[in-house]
């Protein structure tokens, strides 16, 4: 489908404002500035060239220097008063500033002074340029990077300096491994942070949950570039059996924090999650942690196994005399939501 | 007949005309003189085209104002308010633009991505050069999607406009209409929350965006409610702040739970309080800092008998409660659990 009209209009206006006061900008540079192809720039210039004030005689139109244009350089000679850059809308300003603040709070401590300064100056300039919208903190976003602070710092440093990392990692099945990886991206998703990296142990791309990285050491070796196909959603497993878990309404947060195939809300507000299970240990852990709110599991295998694990654990507590029953249940819900 | 004017070209002509008009342009003047509107085949087609264009411009942040003629009250004209048009003087370095580009990727909701893309296009016009994406290369924080309700709620918080929506109660699963003065939107590890005054209960409440069903309706005029006092505001946020760090004493079977072990800190006397069970059956006793009881209880329970909580008692009770429920899971799995709801 063609680009949306509004987006193109904003670029056309932006280009006139950008070109105003510049003596001439090569088509390639203009394309790079606005993140489009040179063919698109040529189309945009053609459009600008035929627009102007009513009458549409030559002197009414936006105009460019034809000789420069022949040589692939865009020089604006008549702007029809459209030289001022357009302000940001209230929501545009809010969402961008909120994102900057969230970035600063999550990355801030790990950044070197030079990068921290860029982040701070971008925030300060945007704040000054948006006035009221900036003062109004309608949105408050906190990004957690769960993981040990030294691990988070090492991963961030390796990414920024493009260096190889040595990891000590424990997987879902509690198997501990050591490996060298070339880090690609640090991503946050469903309440966890993940490192996407090329792993030299398996010669392939892998995702590592940051809170399962026991140790990370930045090596002197530069990280190599590896051509890997883009993954639509790296957090969602693509293989494994689908299991349906039926949960009480109040456990809705599970649907937010778990990669799911499908979520169905039933009449009474309870809901069913379809999850794809790559590791049985993962599903067992999920069932144990939300056991309070589990109404049914299909097929039942994982629930039967989880019940066995729970009984063993209760026995271990009983063995230590620590299986006390709370006075009056002491149920702690997710916290008095409206 | 000439080919129809592309919409972006027509809109640009309209903007330029409304910027350059002496005082105002009426609809009829627009139709007669602005290139592109002659394409409209009927009065209705023109009306639709013009109204849509006007909405599009306003949505993009172009300040199109209505000017009523002095002579006739119903004689409406339009112009662009240049005072309100401009971004204040601003220049962005390529590195700063690069950081803004990365920040824009934080959002996963299409509506908010559209907002940040538009903001970036506008800001590129004041960039000293093309953005340098490498400044924070590889660091791609993302915020969970807030869903269709997020964008209208941002607008409502901004405009101090009362909202109404269908909400499924956490405790009962019951779906009810709620009328709320929206104060604030928060994204935390647990998800997106709207905080505001519930008009029916006349008290501050929090609402999870995932429990909103159907559209968000905005009621009445902007600026229609009194914003919360500072004290009210802080009290409503306090619950969602970061809880203080506490320490748990755990008894862990040898070589199990390495991720928990990695977070252990030296014992600073905590284990004294956890005498019962200490050092029994060859377990290692670890001191692990934590903030959220719920999160640590979920993690510990996942390890089954390999990790036991010695202290504090409330954390142990949270684990035991889950274990007792889990011990009955085979019954639930067989489909006999429905009676518990």
Give an overview of the whole structure.
The complex is a heterodimer of chains A (338) and B (341). With 338 residues, chain A is of the alpha+beta class. Chain A contains 11 helices and 14 strands. Chain A has helices at residues 5-19, 27-34, 38-49, 66-70, 90-107, 113-130, 132-135, 149-161, 253-257, 280-289, 301-319; strands at residues 25-26, 63-64, 73-74, 76-78, 139-141, 163-170, 176-188, 193-199, 204-209, 213-222, 241-247, 262-265, 271-277, 294-298. In chain A, the strands form 4 sheets. A 5-stranded antiparallel β-sheet of chain A has the order 9-8-7-6-10, covered by helices on one side. A 4-stranded antiparallel β-sheet of chain A has the order 12-13-11-14, with helices on one face. In chain A, strands 1-3 form a two-stranded antiparallel ribbon. In chain A, strand 7 (176-188) and strand 8 form a beta hairpin. In chain A, helix 2 (27-34) crosses helix 3 (38-49). Chain B is an alpha+beta fold and 341 residues long. Chain B has 12 helices and 12 strands. In chain B, the strands form 3 sheets. Chain B has a 5-stranded antiparallel β-sheet with strand order 8-7-6-5-9. In chain B, strands 1-3-2 form a 3-stranded antiparallel β-sheet. The longest helix of chain B is centred in the N-terminal third of the chain and has 17 residues, at 43-59. Chains A and B meet through helix 1, helix 2, helix 5, helix 6 and strand 5 of A and helix 1, helix 4, helix 5, helix 6 and strand 4 of B.
